[in-house]
Amino acid sequence: MSILVNKDSKVIVQGFTGSEGSFHASQMIEYGTQVVGGVTPGKGGSHHLELPVFNTMAEAVKETGANVSIIFVPPAFAADAIMEAAGEGIELIVAITEGIPTRDMIRVKSYLSDKNARLIGPNCPGVITPGEAKVGIMPGFVFKSGNIGIVSKSGTLTYEAADQVVKAGLGISTAVGIGGDPIIGTTTKEAVELLMNDPGTDGIVMIGEIGGGMEAEAARWVKENASKPVVGFIAGQTAPAGRRMGHAGAIVGGAEDTAAAKMKIMAECGITVVESPAQIGKAIAEALGKVGV
């Protein structure tokens, strides 16, 4: 089992013919993802990567039956692309674009509130169910199929966690890079909850970073609802207060925003907290009682 994407997912690439869309669409197709076409306004009726190009999402969905979209649209137009996809009934929207204005994302969140659409991102690496579908920019070869779910704000640490899990003799059910912007679609808690309810996931790795309250929210939910072990890591342990580190949302603004505070809350909520990504694999294997397997 898995969450969000699988071999049956039909993917439309928004921003299909641009350099980023072209490169990553090729990678997704090579991985085995069922990419069914793309959207680039003004290029409808043509073909790209041997797949049809449409002017609008309405045309794309009607012709292909797509239920997933991935967005490589420039920041100024990305919010409209997200809302266009949601308006056409796309169930999962993965926004890779970095630098979408916060005001635009406030508009998107409001628009999505009554739509049957889940947004991952923006500014994220995407979602991968190993061996079935890669809807994102992650290096597919790092991920091996298994029963550990990964939720991460950081793209690079998603890959590192996957590598550590595999080196521990385990594999990944689904990995979700939720993005590090101040306003994103799916929160840490929501992604953890999906994995907790997935029968194919036996343990969860939760990677957060300084800034915001999503990790604390997720930890408190885990304390009340966990049926599987959770291993956590927080990036930015040496970050000074008041300085943004990497992601737009990674800034310490209050007492609970620091790495130390988040790690303390997570530990108090029953999560096994590690101080280095290098410890993730061993920690989740021990939590499952599979050291040496």
UniProtKB/TrEMBL annotation:
Coiled coil: none annotated. Pfam families: CoA_binding (PF02629), Ligase_CoA (PF00549). The keyword Cytoplasm does not apply. GO terms for molecular function: nucleotide binding; succinate-CoA ligase (ADP-forming) activity; succinate-CoA ligase (GDP-forming) activity. It comes from the Bacteria. The active site is at residue 247. Keywords: Ligase, Nucleotide-binding, Tricarboxylic acid cycle. CoA binds at residues 17-20, 43, 96-98. Pathway: Carbohydrate metabolism; tricarboxylic acid cycle; succinate from succinyl-CoA (ligase route): step 1/1. GO terms for cellular component: succinate-CoA ligase complex (ADP-forming). Its EC number is 6.2.1.5. The keyword Chaperone does not apply. Residues 4-100 form the CoA-binding domain. It catalyses: GTP + succinate + CoA = succinyl-CoA + GDP + phosphate; succinate + ATP + CoA = succinyl-CoA + ADP + phosphate. It is an enzyme of class 6 (ligase). Heterotetramer of two alpha and two beta subunits. Succinyl-CoA synthetase functions in the citric acid cycle (TCA), coupling the hydrolysis of succinyl-CoA to the synthesis of either ATP or GTP and thus represents the only step of substrate-level phosphorylation in the TCA. The alpha subunit of the enzyme binds the substrates coenzyme A and phosphate, while succinate binding and nucleotide specificity is provided by the beta subunit. Belongs to the succinate/malate CoA ligase alpha subunit family. This is Succinate--CoA ligase [ADP-forming] subunit alpha. It comes from Anseongella ginsenosidimutans. The gene is sucD.
